[in-house]
Each structure stands twice: as C-alpha cells, then as structure tokens.
Amino acid sequence: MTFVLVNGFIGGLILAAFLALCDGLFGTSTFAVLIDVGYVPGMAGLPSVVELLIHLLISVVVVFFMAYFYPRDRSATIKFLLYWALAFTVAYLPFSLFSGTPMSFAAFIIWTIGHVLYTIFVAAQIERQR
After folding, report:
1. Could you tell me the pTM of the whole model?
2. pLDDT over 90 for what percent of the chain?
3. Does the pLDDT at position 130 exceed 90?
4. How many other CB atoms sit within 10 Å of the CB of residue 12?
C-alpha cells in the first residue's frame, strides 16, 4: 500500500508540475483542466490546493489499478501501457469541455506528453518493485 501511495503522489505531482510548467511556457491551460472539479455537483469553488489534492488522490487510485493489473508477461506490457496512455489522452476532450477551458492542439499535445510521462514513470516504478 505504501508503494501505491508514494508513487501515486509523486507521479501526480510530476504530472501537475509538467503541465503547469508547459502552461507557463506555451500559454495553454492544461493544468486547469487537470485539477478543475467545478463541474462536479457540490465541488464548485474549491480552492486550487484542494483540487490538486483531489487530483493526487485520483492518481493514487490509478497507480493502484495499474499496479494490480500490470501484466506479468513482458510482451503484453507495451500494449497495456499504450492502452493507459490512450485512455489518459482521450480524457482530455471531456475534461476540457467540462472545465470550460479553451482547447488547442498545443494543449492536447502537452496533455498527451504529460500523461505518457506519467505512464512511463508509474511503469518504471512497478518494474523496479518487482
């Protein structure tokens, strides 16, 4: 359980920092898409720190499922990781629409790169633990 908590928090922080840095460099709003939960009933107007903590909690849950279902067969690992990265990439569209932030190709690319890095980080940690 410690593995899941630590790597969920670290992976989530790495992703959040990457998106925030890219937002500052390229003028996108991917970090806002990542942490915005204002579209969930009862969660509108939460402070950004609380929204970030919710994101980190979700990251812990994601790491739990990635670690639990991580394939033992090396040949299935790439396919498994590509599915996760694809799911994270596809999530950009509904989350950006729900949050009301402007969509752009640059933001989509940054979101995708950030989530691929997140997937690689988590996979490396799982491989290292085995």
Report:
1. 0.91
2. 80
3. no
4. 23
